[in-house]
Fold each of these.
Amino acid sequence: MARTQTGPDFIEALARGLDVIKVFQPGRRVMTLTEVANAAGLARPTARRILLTLQELGYARAEAGGFALTPRVLELGVAYVRSLGLWDVARPHLEWLVKQTGESSSIAQLDGSDIIYVARVAVPKIVTFSVNIGTRFPALQTSLGKVLLAGLPPEEVERVLAQPSRSGITPRWQPTPEERDAELREVRARGWALTDEQLAPGIRSVAAPLRDGTGRVIAAVNVNAHAAETSLEKLTDEYLPLLLKAASAISADWARYESIPHVTRATAS
């Protein structure tokens, strides 16, 4: 890929490696060597060396006659989120929420039809799925995802959910479009979302939106509980008010953070 206006300290090999990572887009999860080389504007031998290096480092894997990225690439995204200050803003509120409820709390953002966890304060619990920073789940079957989808215009929801999930999970709840739309309308109306074992057995959670200074939903925060230990009544009557308080505090602090003139933030492409 031809470049102009690069300085004497520019590392071309690093730039080419990032170019290769970026060619994997929704709908292009697995790509052949030739497809990667063409998309990145690289010679095939160069693209091959980069892909094999990414594979050795754990950022890519051979799959179905081609190459695919692995979830480890999301570690790079975590650095982006932390550079924005979201974790620093949210952390004390998440820690407070976990102390009050005795349950884990997470923040997630949308990536296609999935959610990706970008912040988390956990407590030791027996859970169906292990959740870490960078974990992804199908959005529609999670309380976090419902909140994020409800924050989108209806036509955008259709486009987002048309993208295949990259989570590798088949959720229990498979709603019709009518059921899906009714669920998201309810979330929009009440301002929070609930999921009760719709993703997998035992997973029950409630989530609320995090907003910037303009009111735009930028992320979602939840309280996650095990269905065998926490009833729906306890989740909604006791934990939900605490969650809404924490979400409001995070949003207010984030709006103040955004208003600081000297703060420089990257813009997502």
Note: Strands lie at 30-31, 60-63, 66-69, 104-111, 114-121, 136-138, 193-196, 203-211, 217-226.
Amino acid sequence: MPSTWILGIETSCDETSASVVRDGSYIASNIVASQIPIHRQYGGVVPEVASRQHLEKITYVVDKAVDDAGLGLDDIDGVAVTVGPGLIGALLVGVAAAKAYSYALNIPFIPVHHLEAHLYANFLSNTELAPPLLCLVVSGGHTSLILLKDHLEYEIMGTTRDDAAGEAFDKIARVLGLPYPGGPALEELASQGDPQAVHFPRAWLSKDSLEFSFSGLKTAVMNYMRDKQGNEEAVSLPDVAASFQAAVVEVLVVKTILAAKKSGVRDVCLAGGVAANSTLREQFQRAADQEGLRFYFPEKKLCTDNAAMVACAGYFHYLAEEFGTLAQEAYANYPLINA
């Protein structure tokens, strides 16, 4: 049986990425043009700047991805692209490029949801993985518990009511004076502190709730810092970072394990940018072992936005013959269910 080669394109935020994946499992290439140095001077992503950078890089990353895979464009069987959610201007660049390649090469155009792409990154790092499984997608824009009943068949078991966990990490990083991107910088600072030094609140919400809320925790940290500084008291930034991180991680782990018990699945996965956090991985592994669950996560380079995960999800849409048309739009807000 001949191989199926999917070209993936990802431009939902500030990473311009293209990848070629064979049969939904082998990464032949995964090119990422990062904009971090550009946005760091602004303290965060500037949408219009991101869009312009995507325009400059998109053709280059696609050409390099195909070339690094040892293929020609004529070898590609389908082109998958993130169509939402994300920054609308950034998304439009990737969607327009994917349409152009689809039309020029006469190959299927495959729309992919950003959340499902993150979820499918697990299949690239763990080839033995199969549905059903539960995945916590946790990033700067999302905190969602997704039950994958079968390939491309999803149930949202819980999501955030306000800030995503990654967004809370980034905001508290700024409060602590850390550089962009805030999440990795906060994790590094937290590694030097005591996670029990300050007791910050955990938002459990109602009994057995699978919903998340991090706005109260964010406010608690800000109030703590303001009170200490107002009273001219010394503050251990590593202790604050470690205590904040512990509060986020505990809620994420406990609610995910609860969701696994409710759904009856034995396989639990992490995905998204925050899934690269070492403390989160360690706490998840410990909790999964205690409950007799199997725990999976992607390698760190597949946690942040990349096109390989888009191509992997696109492969399963290709098998199901779920294709888009050249009328496909991009969506800043885009539900996973019935997407």
Note: The longest strand covers residues 26-34.
